[in-house]
Amino acid sequence: MMRRRLAPGHGEFAAHPAARDLATGRLMSDPTADFFEAIGRRGHERHLEEATGTIRFDLEHDHEVERWLLVIDRGDVRVSREEGPADCVVRSSRAAFDRIVTGRSHIYATWARNELRLEGDARLARLFQRLMPGPPGAHHPRDFAQERRRPA
């Protein structure tokens, strides 16, 4: 069994729940990275076919800023960790964004609570919202309709 090395003070009973893998520096439980990596692997998002532009996510965590850059070209999406100018910049704490990408918080509710700030082309952010997961336990409407049609 391969074991991941943890940063000092991040053992099984550590007070800080965000353990890091020493080999990669990545959080062991990293919903934001998982979310962006999944988008990058898919490469094309039909929900973004009407969009072209760049969105940069500046996520604050432990007095640092983690950046993700999405380059969208008519649905083709490239994800990187590059810095630079973008058509739309989304700023948030890492914790708030983790809640969004796990479906525990809605992006608009986070924005209304001023936990998320937006600069630039808001249309891109609205289109990107289509990729956000629903709340835990949510079902696709078609699945719900099929379940309702089944005899009791």
Key terms for this structure?
24% strand; 152 residues; Nonspecific Lipid-transfer Protein, Chain A; five-stranded mixed β-sheet; globular; disordered N terminus
Q: If strands are numbered along the chain, what order do they take across the biggest sheet? A: 3-2-1-4-5
Number of strands: 5
Q: Whole-number radius of gyration?
A: 18 Å
CATH topology of the domain at 31-132: Nonspecific Lipid-transfer Protein, Chain A
Runs in which pLDDT lies below 50 for 5 or more consecutive residues are: 1-17
Question: What structural class should be given to the helix and strand makeup?
Answer: alpha+beta
The CATH architecture of the domain at 31-132 is 2-Layer Sandwich
Indicate the proportion of strand residues: 15-25%
Shape descriptor reads: globular
CATH superfamily of the domain at 31-132: SCP2 sterol-binding domain
The CATH top-level class label of the domain at 31-132: Alpha Beta
How would you characterize the largest beta sheet?
Answer: 5 strands, mixed
Protein name: Sterol-binding protein
Domain SCP2: 44-132
Region (Disordered): 132-152
Biased composition (Basic and acidic residues): 140-152
